[in-house]
């Protein structure tokens, strides 16, 4: 392996590795307040035959928050909750997203405890101000969403980025109080960071989030029918899910304005295929990792699979000794940045201190190289290696 010049080292460890700095990232509480102003009758979430309006969704969030704080519920009960969630995965997905939003809301907008709690200040253990002191202690550290192993600032950065992506084909801004006509379709599991990010981005804009079921994600024809039936305007899906469109009679999906295709390799046929079925759409290629909230890097959907880090993200290509790898040479891909997850115990070995800057990195399990002009391209991998590592966010 050849020695690197000072200029090359600067490019590999700084210029190419870093997305631009984040700016004007809203707080999670601001995103939630935008969602609360959307008319209650507007549809918020769809999965299979089940739907939740904004009113129903935030009723559940309020009920969960009150129950968690130990208060008795004084409002209407949420009688529309499915009774047999285990037997109905679609209902379970919506219920899971509602509980996840409640968890995020509780971290962003904590309620004082209903019962006396131990006070870290100068008050007695059972003082009336102990609840307020708990809130003060809460604000001293960065709040974290345990199920996702993500801090609120990381989640906010990822959600705001997703909002910017979907807005890039709008003719004008819309009043969020009236909501958006957008229908965002996510072909991914409901219990990961991607779903949480998409949910927050959609709700903050007053849009509808459609979650494809496992069967729909595995069947290109079913996914195509779902996109058409819901008039989806924005689709986020893996390469494998969309590549199956090539085996179908060309579907017409004119409502789609943007495709976000995720993966590590892009079939050459895919860009032309998506343009043919949605002529007025734009498309982009993106890389996601279980250890990072939302998209970490993006590039053009041109069949090359080339990407660059998005704002707030950091990508390094290192060898076994954690040394920088020269352009054109293959190494291990490491990921860090603003939306990096916390370190769950079972995956702690994959996290390490960044050897070239302050912060932490995670070894993604992918291999790749930098091109001479600063694009990251992943090495060809066997199909089974496409999702090599997954973090159990529920356990985290």
Automatic annotation (TrEMBL):
Pfam family, one: AMP-binding
Keyword terms, alphabetized: Phosphopantetheine, Phosphoprotein
All copies of domain AMP-dependent synthetase/ligase, residue ranges: 196-341
Family matches, as InterPro entries: AMP-dep_synth/lig_dom, ANL_N_sf
Protein name: AMP-binding protein
Source species taxonomy: Bacteria, Bacillati, Actinomycetota, Actinomycetes, Mycobacteriales
């Amino acid at each position: 392996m050849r020695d690197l010049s000072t200029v090359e080292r600067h490019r590999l460890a700084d210029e190419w590795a870093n997305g631009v700095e984040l700016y004007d990232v809203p707080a999670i509480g601001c995103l939630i307040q935008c969602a609360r102003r959307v008319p209650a009758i507007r549809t918020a979430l769809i999965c299979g035959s089940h739907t939740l309006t904004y009113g129903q969704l935030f009723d559940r969030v309020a009920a969960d928050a009150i129950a968690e704080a130990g208060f008795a519920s004084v409002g209407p009960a949420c009688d529309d909750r499915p009774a047999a969630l285990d037997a109905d995965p679609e209902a379970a997905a919506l219920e899971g997203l509602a509980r996840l939003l409640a968890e995020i809301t509780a971290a962003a907008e904590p309620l004082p405890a209903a019962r006396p709690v131990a006070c870290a200040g100068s008050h007695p253990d059972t003082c009336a101000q102990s609840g307020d002191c708990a809130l003060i202690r809460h604000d001293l550290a960065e709040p974290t969403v345990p199920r996702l192993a993500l801090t609120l600032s990381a989640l906010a950065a990822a959600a705001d980025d997703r909002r910017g992506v979907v807005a890039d084909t709008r003719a004008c801004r819309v009043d969020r109080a009236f909501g958006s006509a957008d229908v965002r379709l996510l072909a991914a599991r409901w219990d990961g960071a991607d779903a949480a990010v998409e949910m927050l981005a959609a709700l903050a804009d007053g849009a509808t989030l459609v979650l494809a079921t496992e069967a729909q994600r595995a069947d290109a024809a079913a996914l195509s029918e779902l996109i058409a039936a819901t008039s989806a305007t924005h689709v986020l899906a893996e390469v494998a899910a969309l590549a199956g469109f090539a085996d179908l009679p060309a579907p017409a999906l004119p409502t789609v304005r943007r495709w976000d295709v995720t993966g590590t390799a892009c079939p050459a046929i895919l860009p032309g295929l998506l343009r043919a079925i949605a002529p007025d759409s734009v498309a982009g290629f993106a890389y996601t990792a279980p250890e990072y909230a939302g998209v970490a890097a993006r590039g053009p959907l041109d069949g090359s699979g080339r990407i660059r880090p998005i704002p707030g993200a950091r990508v390094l290509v290192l060898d076994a000794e954690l040394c920088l790898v020269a352009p054109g040479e293959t190494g291990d891909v490491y990921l860090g940045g603003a939306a990096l997850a916390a370190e769950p115990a079972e995956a702690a070995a994959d996290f390490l201190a960044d050897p070239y800057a302050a912060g932490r990195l995670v070894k993604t399990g992918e291999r790749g190289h930098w091109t001479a002009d600063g694009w990251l391209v992943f090495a060809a991998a066997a199909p089974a290696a496409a999702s090599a590592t997954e973090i159990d966010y529920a356990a985290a």
